[in-house]
Protein 1
Amino acid sequence: MFIFVSSWGTLRPFHPKPIIMKKILILLVCSLVAFTSQAQTKADKLKNIRQLYAQAKDKVAQNGKTAPNKHQQLVLNNQFDEAPPFKEVVDIYFDEIRQFDNGDVPMSTESPYFMTRRYTCGDIDIYQEWLFDAKEPGKLLFAFECEQQNDGSKLESRYYWDANGLIEVKTNNPDADREGAFMQRYAGEYLSVFETIANRNWE
């Protein structure tokens, strides 16, 4: 209850209308939600991505064993002129998302959650990984690249993304792509190939 002072100097109790109080309550709730969302630190986001990565790796390990085999492999062997032959192997692990069309006919969509690529050519040996958000198909969360050196050492790069873009890069490679653009491009190219193969429209 509020006390209202009129122009005549008398005090009268003022009771806010229920609709006003409802609007104030909604505004307070929305403000609290926005504050909570913004309060999530980068450390929290990185921790969550690492947890999702560990879950995906465990899921890949069980694929085809204790879980159904949901995996596609793309292999490319080629050689150009006098250059050494190269081999590219891409493994894509996916979930099956069940949906219904307008006629209530069940349909399945394959949604990748983890992908690896190994590229070898002469002395070059590169291994890469990508982690995707299971809730938002195609949304990239994490990428890893490891380049084996002739002396036995490894150049490694790790990239982390959230809804607003790249949030962290960790690398010991002086020539690493600090923007993560190449890893994003590779992911998009192979997902496009997978989409063409796995989710064809046969109509």
Protein 2
Amino acid sequence: MSEHSCCTPPGPISIEDSGRRVDRRGFLSAAVGLGLVTFGASGCANSSPATGASPTSSAPPGAPQEWSGTNVVLLGTGGGPIPTAGRHMTSQAVIVDGTTYIVDCGSGVVGQIVASNIAYESIATVFLTHLHTDHISDYFPLVAFGRKIGPQPGFSQNIEVFGPGRAGAFPSGSPQPGVQLVNPSNPTTGTLDLHNGLLDAYAYSVNGMYIASPTGPDIRDVVRVQDITLPVNVVANATDLVAPIMEPFAVYEDDKVKVTAILVDHPVVFPA
């Protein structure tokens, strides 16, 4: 399936208990989403042509359009942190009655959103399935460029971001013994750590343009980040039990979607 095309499931997505551990590839074959997050929405998903526009759209490339029903737009389908000429890295947009939910932010996601005629104003929530670079490399550009600057297009509301919390340890075999770790006081950062660290790394631009100023609202108020917490009855860890048999648990719900999550076995990362 090419990028920008849409999956067409028969109805709301659900995960059946198979009585076994779920690996990442098997999970992908059964659910909309990647790794950590799955969506349930009323109705069927619409199919779209390769341009990313809906079948009834006449909007030119880059011009936001009206979306109806449930649509899944594959913004990037390239696997692994290896750039290729024909595919962008992992990201999907789930659009339900005009509200957009972004799943992962691989390289190229900002341009792909525009090319797919998705309005930044429609983005409500961002989900990160795991913290490998090919799923998060354009996270900060997504949220920074979405913050409105004067009359320019941007988020029409405060957005929420959900992603894995701190792992607490590394999966077996990673990193190599004896290496000097980056950020040794907190080497297994979570999503909130990622967000705050990026604000620090981009301090010059953030302080000059993206905090409260005449150009727009404070980005720290616009973007609200939460680490996903595993249910208390789920026993899992980074070293020897990354994806136990478990029921999907609720992560997010609004008047259009309910988002659930389940751990999957995706080396070498935890949680995913």
Protein 3
Amino acid sequence: MNKIGENEWEKLIDGLVENFQPDELITHEYIKSKFLIVAPEYEEFESVTEFIEAINLQQFEYMSLIEKLRLDVLDRHKLYMSNIRGFGYKFLKPSEQTTYAREKAIDAVKKELNRGLLILKNIRHDSLTMEERKRNSDEMAKLGQLKQMLKIV
């Protein structure tokens, strides 16, 4: 999977921070070259299925390395790498990192609250006892209140 040794990994992290300023695009191609990831060639495989599996495996490997990279950069250099969908990543300016973290956390909580409410609403009420129905209703009310509180945040 990862062809990069520990020393090379440290150099990669330090090099990114030294060579890229906040808001400057770090392309997927650049990162893949540093990860020593080479795209599979169709001719290397006996079938389309094997080729597609190789591409999927490579994407999984890349995303796993990216997650580790993002966490290590954040931990070591206190910079967050934000995804620029389809293009690559950028370091957030320190002045933007607080707002970004808050918004990201609130969005994640709202998403999970909505998921919880969906599950609570879509239940087979006729299969519940009166006590279970009351509990379901109480839990929906609690999550609904939390959702209302987040609207003002």
Protein 4
Amino acid sequence: MTLKNRTKEESKFLRIGNHLIESLFSAFSFSFDKTKSRLFKKFFSKKDLKKIESAVSESEKLHTGEIKVILEGNLPLFRILTGLGARQRAEELFSERKIWDTEENTGILIYIQLVDKKIELLADRGIYKKIGQHTLDEICNKMENGFRSGEYLKSILDAVEEFTKLLQKHFPSGKRNPNELSDLPELI
């Protein structure tokens, strides 16, 4: 049965099962270091995470925007049962991590939900007014294609590069350019 032919209920049970399996793997890994988890190692090495951090850091020297990369493994089952999707989760994290609270309203979230293989890009109102949803969708589609091809790191680095060009154009670096958010990808 292809994904397109599954009913909503079948897809929901499959999603719950995937998150349950990852929850069990996490519980029995006996490590709080997410980089050692089976799921994260499937997609990214510690070296990859350093490359992402470096790309974000170098990017933010060129503009006053802030880019935050969040990689999330499994979601709590009760959140899935209540219908939490990747978009809603990205919006929660955008708020909780105060990505919206940058000085010029130029925060960008690159959120990747690894179990569901979903990518969400959110931009604060300052940059959103300049680039719009269409640009976010284009970058997201490129990332999704890269992930389908197994080019996980390259997809993120390419997105950071595209955001760098946009932020540099609309919000170039000035005399004052504080680093308002950590450049390190956050693993949840």
